[in-house]
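A reminder before we start the practical. When you read a complex entry, don't treat the lines as separate problems. The point of joint prediction is that each chain is placed relative to the others, so the output describes one connected object in space. Small molecules and nucleic acid strands, if listed, are placed in the same frame. In the example below there are three entries. Take a minute to note the order of the lines before looking further.
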Amino acid sequence: MAVNGGSEHFDVIVVGAGPAGSAAALIAARAGLSVALIERGEYPGAKNVSGAVFYGSAILNKLIPGWWEQAPVERHVCRRDLVLMSPTTSVSLDFRSSAAGYSEPPYNGFTILRPKFDRWFAAQAEAAGAFLLTSAVVDDVIKEDGQVVGVQVRRDMGELRGDVVIACDGANSWLARKAGLQRELHTHELSLGVKEVIGLDEATIRERFQLTGDEGVALEYVGAVTDSVHGGAFLYTNRDSLSLGILGQLSSLVEHKKRPYDLLEAFKAHPAVAPLVRGGTLREYSAHLIPEAGWNMVPTLYGDGILVAGDAAGFCLATGIYIEGINYAIQSGLAAGTAAVEACRRQDFTRYSLMKYMELLYQRNVLTDLRAYRHAPAFVNGERLQNVYPELAARISESLFRVAGDRKQKLLPLYWQTLQQVGTKPRHVLKDLYHVARAYLW
Amino acid sequence: MVMTTHDEKMRTVRFRVDDTAHISVDGEKCKSCAVRACVTVCPAGLFVPLDDGSVLFNYEQCFECGACYFVCTQEGAIRWTYPRGGFGVTFRES
Amino acid sequence: MHIAVCLSRLPDPNTVEVDPLTGAVDASRMLYILNPADAAALERALQLRAPEDRVTALTVGPAEADSILRDALAVGADDVLRVWEEGRTSTRPAVTALLLATALRTTELPDMLLCGTRSLATGSGKVPALIAEYLDWPVVTDIVDFTLQGSMVRFLRRLAKGARSEGEVMLPAVLAVEAGAAALRYAGLPDLMKAKRAAIPVQDLSELGLSPVDLNFPAPTAQATMPPYRRPREIFVPEASLPPHERVLQVMSAGIAQKSGRIVSGSPEQAADQIIAFLADRGFVDRAG
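Here is the predicted structure of the whole assembly.
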């Protein structure tokens, strides 16, 4: 064993032991490479926060067959609700399936708690032979003649050298910026998520959310739930707790001067949410940034000796229908790990060799999905979807379902009338219909 | 209790506080800032505006999310790094 | 010189949550740390170490306790040793002390044994004294500072109410230091990596020449005593008959002005009568007496 970290050399150095980092380390270690997986927290997951639903069961199943049997998962998601909110009313689309793929292996998604899941996943990489180093924060990359040849850890003699560095250091990626691959991000590209884990006993959760056994539900909210701030909210069921939180676009929080934790309290007090959380006790409060701009904030993904994956690369799909990130983190981690393995085989670590990563990202549908839904984030965080349409849906439903002895209106006049009440012009709606179609239909 | 005050929320989070601050705020630069975006967005409520127009920051209960870094409009007012490895916030369940 | 340091891994008090109804502690939410006083002891040992010296870190605990020994290796301990009886779930101070003392005796007696003066967990502070008893060494507890002069240690102890006492002790000795005695250094990267890969030696009872019976100490018995009854404190109340202004003045002075002395006059008998009457008024003596 060398006395100086600088004289120990790894084939691959992965920075950040989240889902992307552990996936990259796992696949590279399985290929027989020497891999260092570096994490700044006390343990993997110590600094990580997600909602969290993990919609990548099938992906992980290819890597670790029957992974859910050994991993710390909470509930498999077989019910999803999309809820439009006005201050008093909610209109929801309730999806529930016990079809194959939802309630049977390999399942569609699981609710997870990141500190537990990430620790387990990093342990899988470690078992495959990766060297997991915790309590080590990476400050910078080491460059020689423009080629990244290692990382600088903030400890004495903290130089660590390797052929390929894979930056999986999260939404606020210093490594991608220091390596000159990512620009400074704008506040409209990032959302702040604040979250609470609320303890509630298993029986109550099953009864309250109409679940049996290990079934779970994912509820997602948009509209007045975040006041005028552009964002949304979520509520997921864990085994014996609920994960709930709100997301607010940074620029919008600043514009409306709303404190995130006040919005969280208002969310819990909303008449559609309060009965779901009643009787619970707060177990943990947390917060994290989310890269929400999708395709438009993807950095340069590869350089000489370096690859960027996971949240650091902005691989997050926040389109309203899909709110996914962990699956893309794992897919991109696997792609980066594979690209590193092939580069090591060729002993060529230039950007031309690592460009293979792009091809793998398309193969694994990361860039394909992000590109297909590239117009969605702007629409989802747009003023009318955020604040007008949920109100519209609430008012139309209110009129539609109210029986007061008046003459019943047919739908189109009711629709026009409500549109005028909320102050939106028909041409705006037509324009939005076009945007929706462009973002989601073709 | 489901409804909680900000103090009650913060009490559920575990921090290993380092001796030195990982984020420092130059209060003088904040005097010419009208937005004070950091005060609004910080999920831990660690930025406190002072009467003299500057902003006081307490690093000890920081979530290390980076929100303050991205919203700050005053060049050089926030010096931002992660804490030393092993220190700072440790989430147990989130 | 060979310095041994005893370490303990315990739950971070900030993560220990007691259910107010059942009194149960949620173990799944606890995170563990190296006892701060032990960390200070380790740092003092490392500061004291000359190039030819050796620092050995020991702990009593299950496999999870390896983490603190790795931390000790990372900051510079030369050797580590974990002592444990498989299947054991907890230890009392007497057991911990016996295991540590026996381990030291069977491997190699050090010239100095450093430990934290008390743990954050129970804080009884018994272990250092009990180890000293098993080794038949002197023990100094509550050390805030010490210097080594040859084979003599000059120490500064913390006493109650901020007082300090100085003293000397000859080695070998058990020195138990306070958490504030030193801040543990931050490991360098190569040492951290090396420590992560190191194998942690473990000794069980048979290797120590002990049998489980040796660890069966009679349960400690406590004798219940009632503290002496204390007279309730008199709370000053202003006289209700006075005008508000006067009462406010009385409240503001908190009755202190009233404590002025009174000089009795007259013959000795008269003076004595006055004093007795005064004391009887306030209930200190029986009027009949």
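Discuss with your neighbour: The radius of gyration of chain A is 23 Å. What might explain this?
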